[in-house]
From TrEMBL, chain A:
The keyword GTP-binding does not apply. GO terms for cellular component: membrane. GO terms for molecular function: ATP binding; ATP hydrolysis activity. This is Glycine/betaine ABC transporter ATP-binding protein. InterPro entries: AAA+_ATPase, ABC_osmolyte_uptake_ATP-bind, ABC_transporter-like_ATP-bd, ABC_transporter-like_CS, Gly-betaine_transp_ATP-bd, P-loop_NTPase. Keywords: ATP-binding, CBS domain, Nucleotide-binding, Transport. Belongs to the ABC transporter superfamily.
Length: 358, 686
């Protein structure tokens, strides 16, 4: 659903390799040793350590929304904090635009946090004694930007997140959704290269959550900023993510597009996880189509390969005839009642290799 | 202790029927062992069984054996003499203590001069304006009336002297306390090191702080200020540390994620977020400082306390009251002003209900501008008003307070007191008189208790203290308590301490009975609570010293009035803590008890008391600490025992006697605090 301006060939902004975070005494002996093979309970018993992030590697590409998703305790929040070393990783490497984050000294790290990666928090983290405007301007204040300039910039951001007119309120006078808009504006004010979201909407009511998600989609469409988004909400992940990394017990169990996650779950855990997802709204006709018979490639409605199955069902139901999937002016396949229903029913489930090559 | 050990022994195990089953006695022991309280007592009993016969055989079972005492009189007198001889020549005094003392005296004098220069009108107006600025119009009116009353009572000059001393002492206390608190707030290690020290300092009676400073600085304003600082700085340090440490983790993380440096984090987030605790710390420091500044009159702080002290020593209740009322008024003004500064903080707004509606209104933005402009205008108005009042004050002449404007209340009060002596002291039908009551309390309660405690074998007292402290706390608190008690014996103040202890125990018992009797209805009925609150507020702000005045009027001098003052002083705190504890019991638990059909009494016994146990224990602890502090001061009105030793030592220049008594007081305070200290965390909020 989100903008598809994240080309697969785009350069990586964050590049994470073999990242470990172990809490507890002498944590650094765990990664790479035989202790790493132990189950969490055994490890805790033997060493008193808890593994939050376990040998995780991924790339966040320029301009994409990368969602890290998992249940509570899966290590996702720890993972995102490791990216700017709010939590010090135990081992592994993190690079931002090819620059080693783990090797940064205090000054460089501060610079990274000030200018390149800004974070939005679940519980907002606003300063209760400051007005909305001063909260938004806070990041700039820390950077040493002059008062007039930072206030002008902050006013612009407040406007952008739709809070114009509330500049002089205190955070305590705002609703949860409004507070999170302030948090978002504060993160945007520094004009960072990457926005990091740590379950930003979990504390909000469902309707407001929906609003905020659309706000994020809109922001991403307008600015194309790279985003790393942590959530435990699958529908949020599917709605926002260009790619999703699904975490369990500190490990990434599957990393791929929403369609890959829903269409080709890597294991039973993921399959169980996505079971209740309305498949027709995530999967596209690319997955449902079958090769066109001789007479079918010339007639019938034409659909884009990114059309969802739900939309295709509507078309097919309206016309009563199979629809063609056209890519680059060429018919790559057709979808009919049978194939579309097969996707909805989950009868198509099979290894990724069976799908038609894009 | 007999009670405690008896109950487990009476427990009999069911007779074992199976031959292979362990012996019933073994079973009973095992069951006992499973209960921590019984386990502790068993260990203690075992230790006692070994040690007591040895101790009793070698050192008898009377009071503290003389073999274990160390006579410190000679070295202490020597030290005191040496200090007096070398005060004008030794480098430590010339280059350090001399400068400290000089700076303090200079500062107090400077403040006093400024206050006098402002004149009565200037000071009153400045106080009222300040109160208005930080706490609103109501407090301003109170301030205005209070300062006028001080003048009317003919106490303007002593009030200014006390105020000058207070201002300097508070400034130093806040600075020292804030620095210590900052260190403890930012470093875990400092916090761990500082916390027990601060805890202990808050449990010690004010009198214990007087002697050491007198030893070094002699009698005068400088030691009075220093004793005040030592007494008043801990709450500031404590609350600063608490405020800094309780900063919202999420906010701190957000601030860090924006790339703030450590200094930025402190200045823009941690300190502003701790604003309420900091102001509360200032408030408590001011109240402690006032209380100490008045007591410090016995080491040479002149002002209101001195007037009360002089008047009490001749049982001139009228004059004591004339000086006591300004103390109370000063306390109320200072408390309301500083508490007012702390309460309408933005935090009240933060907690407020979120404003509905996301539709932005344009008016608010303009409102901000107007607010700013209005604020500037108001500040200008304040400055103009202040300047006008000051010039008016200067124009009124150099008299501190017009002589003709005073009301002499001493004579009528003394007349009233004489009437009371004639009519209330004795022979009232049915209830007897106040003097009768005092005599009965002394002969039937205090004397037997004191004799009993003094007749208690020394090892018995140690064992009793160990058992009590261990049952309520940990082995650490028990050890501290036992060592403190032993230290008293070593210092050779055993008998006197048992006398003081008897007064404390009796007064605490009365306080607790009365306190819980008031707390239960206060917790159950909002109306009683509403009626009680203003009374408790006023009583809790008054310095300990003031309580001596009415009890002397009512009961004369002796141990009974000291006990009465102690009870009245400790009662408000006990009522407040206990009723709050009872009221805050989880409403879910109360509701479920009600839904099961529990009667009011059952709810109280089975739900409220058990759930509020930590708070009730805290109330006991506070009762003990507060009663002790006043019982000691009671030495000024014939309470005798340790308090009198201190006063005597000061009056006679016999610092060795006073100092050992002071240390014994500190040890007694430490012991009593540890014996009643429930858990480590329970005192955090205080």
């Amino acid at each position: 659903m989100s903008g598809n301006n994240a080309g697969t060939g785009a350069p990586a902004v964050f590049s994470v390799r073999n990242l470990w975070k172990v809490f507890g005494p002498k944590a650094d002996r765990v990664p790479g040793s035989e202790l790493a093979a132990l189950s969490p309970e055994e490890l805790r018993e033997q060493t008193g350590c808890t593994v939050a992030v376990r040998d995780v590697s991924f790339d966040v590409r320029q301009g994409e929304v990368f969602v890290v998703m998992g249940l509570s305790g899966s290590g996702k929040s720890t993972l995102v904090r490791c990216l700017t070393r709010l939590i010090e990783p135990t081992s592994g490497t993190i690079a931002i635009d090819g620059e080693d984050v783990c090797g940064m000294d205090k000054g460089a790290l501060r610079d990274l946090r000030r200018h390149r990666a800004a974070m939005v928090f679940q519980h907002f983290g606003l300063l209760p004694h400051r007005s909305v405007l001063d909260n938004v301007a806070y990041g700039l204040e820390i950077q040493g930007v002059g008062k007039a300039e930072r206030r002008a910039k902050a006013a612009e951001m407040v406007e952008k997140v739709g809070l114009a007119g509330l500049e002089d309120r205190r955070p305590g006078q705002l609703s949860g959704g409004q507070q999170q808009r302030v948090g978002l504006a504060r993160a945007l004010a520094a004009d960072p290269e990457v926005l990091l979201f740590d379950e930003p909407f979990s504390a909000l009511d469902p309707l407001i959550r929906r609003d905020m998600q659309e706000e994020v989609v809109r922001l991403h469409r307008d600015e194309g900023r790279t985003m790393v988004f942590i959530t435990h909400d699958l529908s949020e992940a599917l709605r926002l993510g260009d790619r999703i990394a699904l975490m369990r017990g500190g490990r990434v169990v599957q990393c791929g597009t929403p369609e890959e996650i829903v269409g080709s779950p890597a294991d039973d855990y993921v399959r169980d996880f996505v079971r209740d997802v309305p498949r027709e709204q995530v999967l596209t006709v690319r997955r449902a189509m079958r090769p066109a018979a001789a007479d079918e490639s010339e007639t019938g409605e034409s659909l884009d390969p990114t059309t969802t199955v739900a939309e295709a069902i509507e078309t097919v139901a309206r016309t009563g005839t199979p629809a063609r999937v056209i890519e680059g002016g060429r018919c790559v396949g057709v979808v009919d009642h049978r194939s579309l229903l097969g996707v909805v029913a989950g009868l198509d489930a099979g290894p990724a290799g069976e799908r038609t090559a894009a | 202790m007999t009670v405690h050990t008896a109950s487990p022994q009476m427990k009999t195990a069911p007779p074992g029927r199976d031959a292979s089953a362990p012996h019933p006695a073994v079973l009973a022991l095992r069951a006992l062992w499973a209960r921590p309280a019984a386990r502790k007592l068993l260990i203690l009993a075992a230790a006692a069984a070994v040690l007591v016969p040895v101790a009793a055989a070698t050192h008898g079972s009377g009071t503290w054996p003389s073999a274990f005492t160390v006579d410190l009189t000679k070295p202490l007198t020597g030290a005191s003499d040496w200090i007096i001889d070398n005060r004008d020549s030794h480098w430590a005094f010339l280059y350090f203590f001399g400068h400290v003392s000089g700076a303090i005296i200079g500062a107090v004098h400077a403040v006093y001069t400024v206050l006098l220069a402002l004149g009565w009108a200037g000071v009153t107006a400045a106080a009222a304006l300040l109160a208005w600025r930080v706490a609103g119009a109501r407090v301003a009116v109170i301030a205005l009336a209070s300062f006028a009353a001080c003048g009317l009572l003919g106490m303007w000059v002593p009030t200014m002297r006390t105020l000058a001393l207070m201002i300097v002492a508070v400034a130093v206390s806040v600075a020292v306390g804030a620095l210590l608190g900052l260190a403890a707030g930012l470093s875990d290690r400092t916090f761990r090191a500082l916390r027990p020290v601060l805890d202990t300092m808050q449990a010690l009676p004010a009198f214990a702080y007087l002697l050491p400073v007198v030893l070094v600085f002699g009698i005068g304003v400088a030691p009075a200020v220093l004793a005040t600082v030592v007494y008043a700085a801990p709450p500031m340090a404590r609350l600063t540390a608490l405020g800094l440490r309780s900063t919202d983790r999420g906010v701190l993380e957000a601030v860090e994620s924006l790339g703030a440096t450590g200094r930025q984090r402190l200045l823009t987030a941690r300190l502003p977020l701790a604003r309420r605790e900091l102001l509360l710390g200032v408030n408590q420091t001011i109240m402690m400082a006032l209380s100490m500044a008045v007591i410090a009159s016995v080491i040479g702080a002149d002002g209101l306390g001195d007037r009360v002290y002089q008047a009490l020593s001749t049982v001139d209740v009228g004059s004591a009251l004339a000086a006591g009322i300004p103390i109370v008024l000063l306390a109320i003004v200072l408390d309301r002003t500083t508490a007012g500064a702390a309460s309408p903080s933005p935090r009240r707004l933060w907690a407020g209900v979120p404003q509905a509606g996301g539709t932005p209104g344009r008016r608010l933005g303009e409102g901000g501008h107007n607010q700013r402009r209005a604020r500037t205008r108001r500040t200008t108005a304040w400055l103009a008003a202040l300047a006008a009042v000051a010039t008016a004050a200067l124009a009124t002449g150099d008299k501190p307070w017009p002589d003709t404007w005073t009301v002499a209340i001493a004579a009528p009060v003394n007349d009233a007191k004489d009437w009371m002596v004639d009519h209330l002291y004795t022979g009232l039908p049915g209830i007897g008189g106040t003097a009768d009551l005092a005599a009965h309390y002394t002969t039937w309660v205090l004397d037997p208790l004191r004799d009993g405690l003094q007749a208690l074998p020394w090892w018995g007292a140690l064992l009793l203290v160990a058992a009590l402290a261990w049952l309520i706390g940990t082995w650490r608190t028990a050890l501290t308590a036992v060592l403190s008690l032993a230290a008293i014996g070593v210092l050779g103040r055993w008998e006197l301490s048992m006398d003081t202890l008897s007064q404390v125990v009796a007064a605490v018992a009365v306080t607790l009975v009365l306190g819980f009797a008031i707390a239960v209805p206060a917790a159950r009925s909002p109306r009683v609570e509403r009626l009680l609150r203003p009374v408790l507020d006023v009583f809790q702000t008054m310095p300990q010293f003031v309580y001596l005045i009415p009890v002397v009027a009512l009961f004369g001098v002796g141990r009974a009035p000291a006990a009465a003052a102690a009870i009245v002083y400790a009662l408000p705190a006990v009522v407040r803590i206990a009723s709050e504890g009872l009221r805050r019991v989880n409403p879910g638990a109360m509701e479920s008890a009600r839904s099961l059909g529990a009667t009011g009494g059952q709810q109280l016994r089975q739900v409220q008391f058990p759930l509020a146990r930590p708070q009730l224990l805290l109330a006991v602890n506070q009762a003990v600490v507060l009663v002790l502090s006043v019982v000691i001061i009671g030495g000024l009105v014939g309470g005798g025992a340790l308090g009198y030793e201190v006063v005597f030592g000061l009056a006679q220049g016999d610092l060795a006697t006073g100092l050992t008594a002071g240390v014994a007081i500190a040890c007694l305070g430490l012991m009593l605090d540890r014996v009643t200290q429930p858990t480590k965390g329970a005192r955090d909020g205080a």
